[in-house]
Amino acid sequence: MLFRSGGVLLGAGTFLLSAAAFLAFGGSEPSAEVRALSERIVGLVRERPWWVSAALVSLLPAVAEESLFRGWALAALAGKNATAARTAAAVTAQAGLFALAHLLPERMPATFLLGLVAGTLRIATGSLLPSIACHAAHNAVPLVLVALAGDAAASAPEPLAAAEGTAAGLA
């Protein structure tokens, strides 16, 4: 239970750190691709029941991607009886593959960091559950932010709208 709770905190914290870094270093204007993704996520949150949004944006991707990257890929890259160096290389490699699979260059640092954190959780605990909790929490943060912003985001000044779009696009 402690590792799952820690996974949730690490996932949410990783998202917030990545979003802050993007806004600080990447500018306040996301690319057209990220803006389109953000608009789809915001629309999903505002047009569907909360549990549908949570399942589609947070839970299902977390289970599927963690099974693939921290389950299969990490085990395949580390091999049986892996040394500490090979395990570290495997965690780094699967995080890189995870980042590349998300396709958008401005999302790659955030997804690489999430991959490192989730891979380290997987190795430290021997279980996928903390990694799934971490990933689900990471993906849930923009849902919570959009839900909290509510109708205020529609009439907000451009910087707030850009921040909301950036937050949704980093999911």
| SSE string, helices as H and strands as E | HHHHHHH
Q: Can you count the beta strands?
A: 0
Give unreliable regions as ranges: 156-168
Instruction: Label the overall shape.
Output: globular
Largest sheet: none
In a few lines, what is going on in this structure?
With 171 residues, the protein is mostly helical. Helices cover 81% and strands 0% of the residues. The chain is globular, with a radius of gyration of 16 Å.
Helix and strand arrangement:
Elements: H1 2-25, H2 32-47, H3 50-78, H4 84-101, H5 108-125, H6 129-149, H7 158-169
Helix pairs in contact: 1-5, 1-6, 2-3, 2-7, 3-4, 3-5, 3-6, 4-5, 5-6, 6-7
Structure description:
Helix 3 crosses helix 4 (84-101). The protein has helices at 2-25, 32-47, 50-78, 84-101, 108-125, 129-149, 158-169. The chain is mainly alpha-helical and 171 residues long. Mean pLDDT is 83; it is low at 156-168.
Salient structural properties:
171 residues, mainly alpha, globular
